[in-house]
Design brief:
The protein is α+β, with helices and mostly antiparallel strands. The protein is about 10% helix and about 25% strand. Strand 3 and strand 4 form a beta hairpin.
């Protein structure tokens, strides 16, 4: 559907102040909530107070990014915003880093660093209240309970070297103030063992486990399903790595020749066979040491589609003696095919996707529905994750030798791909299976902002991440463009208003099968939806002028104070002149406007990255045109950041969410796809 904006086209001729008056019309419905003064709370009223404190300095508003996870060697900074703590202005305080949970109310404080840091809270701006507490000396985790070592930040306001009122703490019973993470691509604390098992036919397995498994109790099981023409012995980079971190990995021979359906059968039969014969396989070394309730399936190519089909069969009632759908906690697909179309629907189990931008087998071209990986991601109904890797070919994901099966510039190669895979797969499994709080931010913070420290630093290495919470998480979906097809109405029922010349809403499926721009505004290079799929969003462009796209927050949802992030995903349009004129990250701004007309605006580039440019691969409609599928990545902006530095935005009465484009708000020109505008939790 094409959303035209002729009725509001004159908006772009108005001054910024006049436009804010227009946005007030979107908030004209009566509300019962009263205005709140968020900055009036004094730390002395808390016993003691829990606040976000640790993070990293930013060069632009909001000037500081509060984060949960640091790599080993990163400096640890703390921000004391005088807008948040008005009673502390120009007051001298002591800041401690302490081991998490080591300090109870009333206890004496013992710093994890050499000594506490004494600072003076600034009078006006948080820019002056950012202090480096540790230059990077704190160690990461060495065990397996968590991939991170847990620390809290305590601000000793009365400077009595005790933790008591009115002190502040970053950390609580559920989560530490922050975590230090060591090299995630490096081996873990155990020595891995690899053994081959042959049960005949397709019951052949390459099994990895910690050498001291006899003393470790029950461990989660990871099952690997290879692709067509591949071998089950080609996944040492996953098996050896994960076994060193306390997991059992079984990579099985896969029947991929007939197709992903046959691969699904061998995944199911090998999982069942292993669990049913633990007393005899490998002389019983695994017997009593497999946690049957915590199983991960990961597959490559046809095996990547096969693990999805296998899980769907469990949901549809296929019964096995040793396990059921409730035991599969995560399904991950590496460069999967899509032979099954819409029937390849995994349901609501957590799902993760790996895509190689240089893949010359499952190549993502619009003319080949079977070759488009993102279809499987879009059909997942639950929590879902995606990682796209520039310069990575189909053969780079395994370690069997031979070519990378890649096309395009700036090839990453097999060894660097494996470092990336190890660095991301470990936190993925730790988060989904164990809820490890040190792991989660690796799955959504942009590559420029946080990457596993063992990942290569080569400029050719570019990673795009998508992350979406489960629909049952309690998130508020402002617009996912899947419902309410009426023009200028969001899926949540509010109005959409824009100064853009036009906005195209529809299925994310390339219309001409070539990736080459055709219509003035089209779904060019979109590959999220295949035939029969309904994944949808909007596409629009701007060129040299400031433009706005506004979403009214429906009355019943205007209290956003219970949410942690504004989340959305976006992608630059491949091969479009507005993209190729400057091949770099695209910057834009997001804005919240409350019921009293107060606004706060943040440029996403302040956090270190923007919307990534598409990988410049040829093919898919023309060898002389570069840029493959539109690569979406998720952007999450912390809601409290909109109130940084004393901004008196009222999160309990938000009327409008705005997206701002043009030279005044970011990149001067661009064409993008936008989707999944949501308010999510921590």
């Amino acid at each position: 559907m094409l959303r035209t904006s002729s009725s509001v086209r004159s908006v772009c001729l108005l001054s910024r102040n006049r436009f804010l008056l227009l946005t007030a019309l979107l908030a004209s419905l009566p509300v019962s909530a009263q205005q709140t003064d968020w900055a009036s709370s004094s730390p002395s009223e808390l016993d003691p107070g829990a606040f976000a404190l640790a993070g990293k300095r930013l060069l632009a508003y909001p000037y500081f990014q509060y984060v949960n996870t640091f790599n080993e060697g990163d400096p640890i900074q703390v921000a004391l915003d005088p807008g948040v703590f008005p009673t502390l202005r120009q007051k001298q305080v002591d800041i401690y880093i302490v081991t998490h949970a080591s300090t109870q109310v009333g206890d004496e404080l013992f710093p994890a660093t050499d000594f506490p840091k004494t600072v003076v809270v600034p009078l006006r701006s948080v820019k002056d209240g950012i202090f480096t507490i540790d230059p990077g000396t704190l160690a990461g985790a060495t065990g397996t309970t968590s991939i991170g070592t847990a620390y809290d930040v305590i601000v000793d306001i009365n400077r009595n070297s005790r933790f008591d009122a009115p002190d502040l703490i970053d950390g609580n019973a559920k989560r530490a103030g922050f975590y230090i993470v060591a090299d995630l691509a490096a081996p873990g604390p155990y020595q891995g063992v690899e053994e081959l098992y042959n049960g005949g036919g397709f019951l052949q397995q390459d099994i990895y486990y910690p050498d001291n498994i006899a003393s470790l109790g029950e461990l989660p099981l990871i099952v690997v399903s290879h692709g067509n023409g591949h071998d089950h012995r080609w996944y040492d980079h996953l098996g050896s790595h994960m076994s060193s971190w306390g997991y059992v990995v079984m990579s099985h021979r896969n029947n991929t020749g007939p197709g992903p359906g046959a691969a699904a059968t061998t995944t199911l039969s090998n999982t069942n066979h292993l669990l049913g014969n633990l007393d005899t396989i490998l002389s019983g070394v695994l017997d009593g040491h497999i946690d049957r309730d915590n199983i991960v399936w990961i597959g490559h190519s046809r095996g990547g589609e096969g693990v999805v089909i296998a899980y769907r069969r469990l949901l549809d009632g296929q019964v096995f003696e040793e396990f059921g759908p409730e035991d599969i906690k995560l399904v991950s697909s590496i460069a999967p095919t899509d032979f099954g179309g819409p029937s390849t629907d995994i349901g609501d189990v957590p799902y993760h996707l790996w895509t190689g931008g240089a893949d010359n087998d499952v190549n993502g071209c619009a003319v080949c529905n079977v070759c488009q990986t993102f279809h499987l991601h879009e059909r997942a109904d639950g929590e879902r994750y995606s990682i796209s890797l520039h310069g990575v070919g189909h053969g780079d994901f395994h370690d069997g030798g031979g070519p990378s099966v890649a096309m395009g510039p700036c090839r990453v190669g097999r060894l660097q791909t494996h470092d990336i895979m190890r660095g991301y797969f470990l936190p993925l499994v730790k988060w989904v299976l164990e809820g490890d709080p040190a792991a989660q931010e690796f799955l959504w913070r942009q590559w420029e902002d946080l990457r596993p420290s063992g990942a290569p630093l080569d400029d050719c290495v570019v990673v795009d991440l998508m992350y979406q919470e489960h629909p049952a998480s309690g998130k508020f979906v402002l617009d996912d463009f899947q419902s309410n097809p009426a023009v200028d109405v969001s899926s949540s029922g509010g109005a959409m208003l824009t100064s853009l010349a036009e906005v195209l809403e529809g299925r994310f499926d390339d219309p001409n099968n070539s990736f080459n721009p055709s219509d003035p505004l089209s779904m060019n290079a979109m590959t999220l939806a295949g035939n029969g799929d309904d994944s949808s969003g909007i596409v629009f462009e701007w060129d040299g002028a400031d433009e706005v796209l506004l979403f009214q927050v429906p009355q019943a949802q205007r209290d956003l104070s219970g949410f942690a992030y504004l989340s959305f995903r976006a992608a630059q349009a491949a091969r479009d002149p507005l993209t190729t004129v400057v091949l770099e990250d695209l910057d834009l701004s997001v804005e919240l406007i409350d019921f009293d007309g107060r606004s706060s605006t943040i440029r996403i580039g302040a956090y270190g990255g923007g919307i990534e440019e598409p990988y410049q691969r040829p093919r898919c409609g023309g060898m002389n045109l570069r840029g493959w599928a539109n690569e979406f990545e998720t952007i999450r902006v912390r809601l409290e950041d909109f109130r940084s530095d004393g901004r008196r935005l009222d999160l309990t009465r938000i009327a409008v969410v705005g997206f701002l484009f043009g030279p005044g708000f970011g990149s001067s020109q661009g064409r993008i796809g936008l989707d999944e505008i949501e308010f999510t939790h921590e």
